[in-house]
From TrEMBL:
Keyword Transferase tagged: yes
Family: Belongs to the trans-sulfuration enzymes family.
Classification via InterPro entries: Cys/Met-Metab_PyrdxlP-dep_enz, Cys_met_metab_PP, PyrdxlP-dep_Trfase, PyrdxlP-dep_Trfase_major, PyrdxlP-dep_Trfase_small
Pfam family, one: Cys_Met_Meta_PP
GO molecular function, one term: transaminase activity
CDD domains from the UniProt entry: CGS_like
Protein name: PLP-dependent aspartate aminotransferase family protein
Domain of life: Bacteria
Keywords: Aminotransferase, Pyridoxal phosphate, Transferase
Keyword Transferase among record annotations: yes
Gene3D superfamilies: Aspartate Aminotransferase, domain 1, Type I PLP-dependent aspartate aminotransferase-like (Major domain)
Amino acid sequence: MELSFILNELGEDRENYFNAVSPPIMQSSNFTFKTVTQLRQAMADEFETNLYSRGQNPTLNILRKKLAALDGAGDALVFSSGIGAISVPLLSLLQVGDHVIAVKNPYSWTLKLFNEFLPKFGITTTFIDGTVFDNFEKAVKPETRLIYLESPNTFSYELQDIKKIAGFARARGIMTMIDNSYCSPLYQQPISMGIDLVAQSATKYIGGHSDVVAGVLTGSKELIRQIFDHEFMNLGPAISPHSAWLMLRGLRTLPLRLQRSFESTKIITQWLNSHEAIQQVIWPFDPAFKQSQLACEQMQGCGGLFSFTLKNTSFANIEAFCNHLQHILLAVSWGGHESLILPSIASIAEPEYKPGDERHQLIRMYVGLEDPQYLINDLQQAFNKLKL
Ligand SMILES: *Cc1c(COP(=O)(O)O)cnc(C)c1O
């Protein structure tokens, strides 16, 4: 299916709403039926019918069709957050006694899910360095039910060889799931590489305007339906029709926004690479990146999220640099119109800081839609205020 068709036409039955170009926000909790027979049919199959907006809703349905098509998936579910799109399918797939193999540096709340939440249900996790394929083989146990990937992650950008791991898992009847937030469906297609379930935080690129928190899960129709019929409807992570509409609006410009971030990031990372205050730039499409070859093989683009370290790694220096920025905002999240900075030290108390630990030194930058020169000027004036 062509990208332009998906983003502009798919799912939009405009004759149903006065031929409006922009779909309506169907702000209704419930839907009415003419006969008890019709109502009974709807209640028997909430997955396929607009009955109650904790399940389906017409605005949401347009969005689901587009999101499934973007991932080349059978179907999609939309959640009220990205972490909901990760936790709910895990609760669906796993049961007491099951074992998970997960990459060792996933998104912070995903790590908490494996470390603190899932153990309450007798589910154990082995964390591995996912850059080395053999580690997956070594970690497999008879009770391994799921391999959980995040490629690349969003702070240090380790990749996994997705196709190879998916093939390995499938041959052993182990399910696979990936957090694809970093790439979005435009820059990485895990389903075509054999992954069973793809989650992403739609708060980032899909929403794209820093005004909605949402998550997306895609997979085969059977798997998505099974998750919908049980955990999704029981745990209730539905989004509002208004949020669904904001995501539809975000999708219209997704290719343009990603391309702009990607192009600006090439310029900014190149500039940083030759800057005297910089020790290292970490971005999967940087020629010096450790897994640059794998990145170019399995990703179609790279977007605007990267990290760097300063030569002067003192806590005070990193803090001063971030505080001196005048336009690049100090905040969590990414994927919106605005450029952001987030240093590792924001989650480390000064006495715990180890100046020699690369993970502690990392400063994450997200390049938004501003003119790249405007951002470079902001970085330069902050560097000028530091002692090198
Ligand atoms: C932000 C993020 C999440 C969580 O998404 P929310 O929408 O904040 O719940 C999960 N994974 C990655 C990689 C993220 O960046």
